[in-house]
Design brief:
By secondary structure, this protein is of the alpha/beta class. It has two domains: 2-121 and 269-323, Medium-chain alcohol dehydrogenases, catalytic domain (Quinone Oxidoreductase, Chain A, domain 1, Alpha-Beta Complex); 139-262, NAD(P)-binding Rossmann-like Domain (Rossmann fold), CATH 3.40.50.720. Helix content is 31%, strand content 27%. The protein contains ten helices and 16 strands. It has helices spanning 42-49, 114-134, 151-162, 174-182, 196-203, 221-227, 250-254, 265-268, 272-287, 304-312, and strands at residues 2-7, 17-21, 30-40, 59-60, 64-72, 84-88, 97-101, 105-107, 142-145, 166-171, 187-190, 209-214, 228-236, 259-261, 295-300, 319-323. Strands 3, 5, 6, 7, 8, 15 and 16 form a seven-stranded mixed sheet that branches. It binds NADP nicotinamide-adenine-dinucleotide phosphate. NADP nicotinamide-adenine-dinucleotide phosphate (NAP) binds next to helix 1, helix 2, helix 3 and helix 10. NADP nicotinamide-adenine-dinucleotide phosphate (NAP) binds at residues 41-43, 122-123, 126, 147, 149-153, 171-172, 176, 215-216, 219, 237-241, 263-265, 311-312, 314, 316.
């Protein structure tokens, strides 16, 4: 018997319970992973509340983990008991151990600790596709990043800086502004008290930015659009303040022939080749020292309720790790 954090119905953080779960032996194409560290991500909140449907309940939450393979099914190829592995976008991570197929798994290089892997696989591969594929950041670009002191935000900021960009980061407090600056932001905007677009136009001498990486959603959509230069790209990759529900594409025309993308990591890691490329790029940039993974807080897995309250209450910084 092992323990897991599960929900029986969608709802608030207190709906999650720490329960006994019988994991059993892996099926033919499965492995059993014993988690040493589990990642905490905002998508876990969307899935807990039901904003994102996760299918039949009860279910074990959590999309990201690191650990060791304990046992492999008969037809599993390329993975063996004892391998150190990690994954993102694999529902069921809030558990001491679990069964899963190998399509989301990558082997961990020696230089990446389990805690770092659990902190970065989802947020780091997201930063990778945002900066390399959604909009390819190049030296000399001035770019806008929302929630720059958060998990994705600190990785995005550091990585963009290493690509030669000037980074404007929006944050919710002075303390977070300091963290965002330490993560490479050249300018910070306190978006609770300052006008984002006004500041961006001021910083860019009226030109605007070619891209806004917007994870906030409803609260910042207009500010993102107003900060873009003609034919700029609005990348709406999250809903921390709530989903955008009233979007008229005509506004893209009115504000300067803009582009909009609503991407997801699942698309950009949808097969083994893409997954290995994204993970490899992330491992390389972390090994190079250009990006360091800032674990702002760690919780026992059994205390995931508090971790969710902190994340949705804007009380976390950097990445968060849950320890089984
Ligand atoms: N599409 C994808 O592929 C993908 C993948 C990974 C993550 N994401 C998205 O990226 C975002 C960041 O994820 P994360 O896990 O790294 O979280 P995070 O940025 O560490 O935490 C969320 C932050 O959003 C800010 N925020 C602004 N308004 C908020 C509100 N009303 N409620 C809560 N937070 C608010 C807060 O920072 P301030 O106090 O500084 O405002 C908060 O700390 C999320 O929106 C997530 O859904 C998308």
């Amino acid at each position: 018997m092992t323990k897991a954090i599960r929900i029986h119905e969608y709802g608030d953080a207190d709906n999650m319970t720490w329960e006994d779960v019988d994991v059993g032996a892996p099926g033919e194409d499965e492995v059993r992973v014993k988690h040493t560290a589990v990642g905490l991500n905002f998508i876990d909140i969307y899935q807990r509340t039901g904003l994102y449907d996760i299918g039949a309940l009860p279910a074990t939450l959590g999309m990201e983990g690191a650990g060791v393979i304990e046992e492999v099914g008969a037809s599993v190829d390329g993975f063996a008991a004892g391998d150190r592995v990690a994954y993102a976008m694999g529902l069921g991570a809030y558990s001491e151990s679990r069964l899963m197929t190998t399509d989301r798994l990558v082997k961990l290089p020696d230089g990446i600790s389990d805690d770092t892997a659990a902190a970065m696989m989802l947020q780091g591969m997201t930063a990778q596709y945002l900066l390399k594929s959604s909009y390819a950041v190049k030296a000399g670009d001035t770019i806008l990043i929302m929630a720059a002191a958060g998990g994705v935000g600190q990785i995005l900021s550091q990585w963009a800086k290493s690509l030669g960009a000037t980074v404007i980061g929006c944050v919710g407090s002075e303390a977070k502004a300091e963290l965002a600056k330490a993560a490479g932001c050249d300018h910070t905007i306190l978006y609770n008290s300052e006008d984002i677009a006004e500041r961006v136009l001021d910083i860019t001498d009226g030109a605007g930015v070619p891209v806004s990486y917007d994870s906030i959603g409803q609260a910042t959509v207009q500010a993102s659009l107003d900060s873009l230069k003609p034919a700029g790209v609005f990348i709406s990759f999250g809903n921390a303040s709530g989903p955008i529900t009233d979007f008229n594409p005509g506004v893209l025309a009115m504000k300067g022939s803009l582009y909009m993308q609503r991407p997801t990591l699942a698309t950009y890691t949808r097969n083994r080749e893409l997954l290995n490329a994204a993970a490899g790029d992330l491992f390389d940039v972390v090994a190079s020292g250009a990006v360091s993974i800032n674990i702002g807080q760690t919780y026992p897995l059994a205390e995931t309720v508090q971790a969710h309250k902190d994340l949705e209450g804007r009380n976390t910084t950097g990445s968060s790790v849950l320890i089984p």
